[in-house]
Write a structure and sequence with these properties.
alpha/beta, CHAT_dom, Rossmann fold, 33 helices, CHAT domain-containing protein
Length: about 950
């Protein structure tokens, strides 16, 4: 019946009234997703008001809304609109969680369970594609558990396949021997699942391919899941170098998809088969030209992205001027779509970057004619244009994945190309400026985005946190003391304490019980360090992932403002050093790829000079790995840091001791290296570490230091009304003596946690929990100190480290970098000291970003930031922190200006003058 009578609106209303949301949701997978009728389904769901919030509703009404969102999440996933997909997941997350809680296994109505199971599966897909593999796997697992618990047999193949594929991706990130074992296990599980599907279909008399497919919707959904199992099994076999088996499974998957009329899965299979044949045609005894035929078949399918992949590959294989022109045309289409949709927020970065790579490859093989050179120049320009467009990506997971995997290598190649050009005398300066500009443009961008956002979203700091114990046990209450102030000896004032710690040949020092610290030497602040038990590590990862999720969800609701790149940053840096005589800037960077990765540096002292080539990056990475396995650096590490990072710069830098201020901007793994302990000859007489030779500070980027004004943090105004707030963990190993003997008026101090011996009754007191932290930062303290335990393991990746804090029940909880960025505001802060092991650590990122607490405290508004990179001695930490705080009070009675860089430098000079063993007693790296 057509719509066009006297009352067309009424006719539409009657048609819509006859449709039921639950029927549409349950039929969506095979009746709407398969034939690409996403728009039709979405329109009906909108007309039925299925997306409208239903506060206080029961499972049935919640299931309508959650199911409707699942349908739209599937559409976003198929279109690879990750930004919208993440927003849809965020908008429906609370209702999906509530629905999952309300499910009753005895309920005969399976629709609520179906909606919940499918929502978790859809959320997992979007998170997985955005690069959050662990979070995606967690949603896949929850969805599968719901489906299994409620007997949703027709969903199980698809959902089991997704869980196994996510586990496979995580396995591929592990060490080679672990990866091989886990991959074999997952392949076996995938094969077993395929066999289960085949047995179930055969027992029910359901054909698995051909044209005689069942009319029953649930069996068609089952078979679509079976096709997914076969496709993922083929993918795993291909990466396990089993091309014959991989191709065989893919052909079986394709047959099922063709019978179902599933364009999306057909295109996936055909593309995968073309890749397998192209890579292994000799072993398969196949003609490589067969791949072209497979790509041409994709051109006739309904999946738009699949057609573009086919266009890309056919043009690449065609080559020559015609292939180059086709690739240029495809790139123009993609760029136009990006502009039409508001930039790169919804852009398919993978497709565009692969197309750029194909264009470069084809143009590189063109003749050296004017037309060929023009094509090569156009390809290089489009590559950089693609890389710069990613700066507009606003959803953090998608940004990280796209930036790290596809974008930063573009900058690295461009920098390498510019460095390798011979000096000409004319134009060299412009080239050097471009290299520095590209270096700044390509790294540390996420922190600059956070800093540029006018008002970061802030969660309630005092909300109750349900904690999983962070150290496997409760914390012991060690009550405060109102004892009178006492003299605090130097950490090296006693003869025994003055001896350097015993070095263990070939390894680390043994584990030992930690004594109660009196602030002289004491134990290490590594109470959270324990054997990496897999269950505990996984508990940490889950907790950290949950905090990361909250962090990222905030930026789906309130997007980050992409910080514009400053193209004149090189000239600004030069102007800065000219206007600050005696100051030098060192900006490290990496360039090249793979085994050719090289470390370079700019030394800006009296002007911009050619970049220094420090050498291959591999020895630096070896040093980073070695230090990560130890509790603290040894003398040999001091020498190696000097040789690898400082010595190559001396020709341009000159004698560091003649400088008034040396500012070093690390890159990648260099953020984890303690440059301040670098010394030409270790403990040898006359060999002085860098931090004692020159007033030294680090910075996260030249842009942050010069353009964003962090250079102003070196010298700051102080007064007698400054507040000092601290959180001191209740642990006998933590003396908290950095707070004692500083000359600070006790009525201007607030301590959350254990009151260190030597502080009196005038100090404001709180517990070392979330409420105490809220009270501490609520004073808007000019100086903030954390004295406690930190933990970081490589398994945490970019999620760690974390610091210990108590929940409201007195149990150990985790204070993560994500909590700091969203919960702490430190406006007006002059100095923050994190006196906890490994507080300055964090994983190296593919985007070259500084991570962990350095990033989050700076984003939260911290001033100068001092924090350790190893498992520090309590006494060393206490003495160093105390010196900085006391120096600030001494400045109050002098000219009222506190120079934190010089204060730390003077302390390190005095430390080195006391004799050998100074490494342990130089615990803090300082960021301005």
């Amino acid at each position: 019946m057509g719509i066009g009578g006297a009352d067309p609106v009424g006719e539409i209303a009657r048609i819509v009234a006859d449709l039921h949301v639950r029927d549409l949701v349950q039929a969506y997978d095979v009746d709407y997703d398969v034939p690409f009728r996403h728009g039709l389904a979405g329109g009906v769901l909108q007309l039925k008001q299925a997306f409208r919030p239903v506060p206080g509703a029961g499972a049935g009404r919640l299931a309508r809304r959650v199911g409707a969102y699942w349908c739209d999440i599937v559409r976003a996933d198929v279109e690879l609109d990750l930004q919208q997909g993440l927003a849809l997941v965020d908008a429906s997350r609370a209702d999906a969680a509530r629905l999952t809680e309300l499910l009753d296994p005895s309920d005969e109505d399976l629709f609520p369970a179906y909606a919940a199971a499918r929502w978790h599966d859809g959320a997992g897909r979007v998170l997985y594609r955005s690069g959050s593999h662990a979070r995606g796997r967690m949603h896949f697992t929850t969805g599968l558990e719901v489906a299994e618990r409620h007997g949703l047999w027709w969903c199980l193949p698809d959902q089991r396949s997704n869980v196994l594929r996510a586990r496979l991706e995580e396995a591929r990130q592990a060490a080679p021997e672990v990866m091989a074992r886990r991959t074999a296990e997952i392949i076996a599980e995938m094969a077993a699942e395929a066999a289960r599907c085949e047995q179930a279909a055969d027992e029910a008399g359901v054909p698995r391919d051909g044209n005689a497919l069942p009319l029953d919707r649930r069996w068609r959904e089952f078979l679509r899941g079976y096709s997914n199992v076969l496709h993922n099994l083929s993918f795993a076999l291909h990466h396990d170098r089993q091309p014959v088996a991989a191709l065989g499974r893919s052909l079986r998957s394709l047959a099922v998809s063709e019978a179902l009329g599933d364009s999306y899965r057909q295109a996936q299979s055909l593309n995968h088969q073309a890749i397998v044949i192209g890579a292994h045609h000799v072993a398969l005894h196949r003609d490589p030209a067969e791949a072209d035929a497979l790509y041409r078949r994709i051109l006739h399918l309904r999946w738009a992205r699949g057609r573009r992949i086919a266009q890309q590959q056919l043009a690449r294989r065609k080559g020559g001027f015609e292939g180059a022109a086709e690739l240029a045309g495809l790139l123009a289409e993609l760029a136009a779509e990006s502009a039409a949709t508001g930039g790169a927020a919804g852009l398919d970065i993978d497709l565009r970057s692969f197309t750029v790579s194909c264009y470069q490859g084809v143009s590189a093989g063109l003749p050296d004619t004017e037309e060929g050179r023009a094509a090569r120049a156009d390809a290089a320009g489009r590559e950089l244009e693609m890389a710069r467009s990613v700066r507009q990506v606003i959803a953090l997971p998608a940004y990280k994945r796209a930036y790290g995997g596809a974008v930063r290598p573009v900058y690295s190649r461009r920098i390498a190309h510019l460095i390798e050009q011979p000096a000409t005398g004319s134009g060299d300066r412009d080239r050097y400026e471009e290299i520095l500009s590209l270096t700044e443009e390509s790294s540390g961008r996420e922190l600059l985005d956070l800093m540029s956002t006018a008002a970061l979203p802030q969660l309630d700091l005092a909300e109750d946190e349900e904690a999983a114990p962070a150290d496997g046990s409760g914390s012991e209450a060690a009550g405060g003391s109102g004892e009178a102030a006492q003299a605090v000896p130097s950490a090296r004032g006693q003869a025994a304490a003055a001896q350097p710690r015993a070095e263990q040949p070939g390894g680390d020092e043994p584990e030992s019980e930690q004594p109660e610290s009196d602030g002289t030497r004491g134990g290490r602040r590594d109470g959270l360090r324990r054997a990496a038990d897999p269950a505990e590590v996984e508990a940490d990862r889950v907790a950290l992932l949950e905090r990361e999720s909250r962090f990222e969800e905030q930026f789906l609701r309130r997007p980050l403002e992409a910080a514009p790149h400053d193209p004149d940053v090189a000239r600004r840096a030069e102007m800065f050093v000219i206007n600050h005589p005696g100051t030098a800037l060192v900006r490290y960077f990496t360039y090249g790829q793979g085994a050719g990765l090289t470390l370079g540096a700019f030394v800006i002292r009296d002007g911009l000079r050619r970049p220094v080539v420090c050498g291959p990056y591999a020895p630096v990475q070896e040093l980073i790995n070695e230090l990560a396995a130890r509790r603290s650096p040894r003398e040999e590490h001091s020498r190696r840091i000097w040789r690898l990072l400082v010595e190559p710069l001396l020709g341009d830098l000159g004698d560091p001791s003649t400088l008034d201020h040396l500012v070093v901007v690390p890159t990648d793994g260099l953020f984890s290296l303690p440059l301040h302990i670098a010394s030409p000859d270790g403990y040898a007489p006359g060999s002085v570490p860098l931090g004692a030779q020159v007033p030294l500070s680090l910075s996260v980027s030249v842009t942050a230091f010069v353009t964003r004004g962090r250079y102003l943090l070196r010298r700051q105004r102080v007064s007698g009304s400054d507040d000092l707030a601290a959180l001191v963990v209740d642990d006998p190993v933590i003396s908290g003596k950095e707070l004692v003997g500083t000359g600070w008026p006790e009525h201007r101090m607030l301590v959350a946690g254990r009151l260190p011996k030597g502080l009196g009754v005038d100090v404001r007191r709180h517990r070392a929990d979330w409420d105490g932290l809220a009270a501490a930062v609520g004073t808007r303290p000019e100086f903030f100190v954390y004295a406690g335990h930190g933990r970081y393991l490589a398994e945490y990746g970019e999620l760690g480290p974390f610091l210990q804090i108590d929940d409201r029940h007195g149990r150990p909880d985790r204070l993560t970098p994500f909590d700091v960025a969203l919960r702490l505001r430190l406006a007006g802060n002059r100095l923050t000291i994190l006196g906890a092991c490994l507080a300055g650590q964090g994983a190296q990122t593919t985007g070259g970003d500084v991570v962990g607490f350095v990033r989050s405290f700076i984003a939260a508004g911290a001033g100068a930031l001092a924090l350790p990179l190893w498992r520090v001695l309590d006494g060393a930490m206490a003495e160093t922190g105390r010196h900085l705080l006391a120096s600030s009070r001494a400045a109050v009675t002098q000219d009222g200006v506190f120079d934190v860089v010089r204060a730390l430098h003077e302390h390190y000079r005095a430390t080195v003058a006391e004799g050998d063993g100074w490494i342990e007693f130089m615990p803090l790296a300082l960021y301005t």
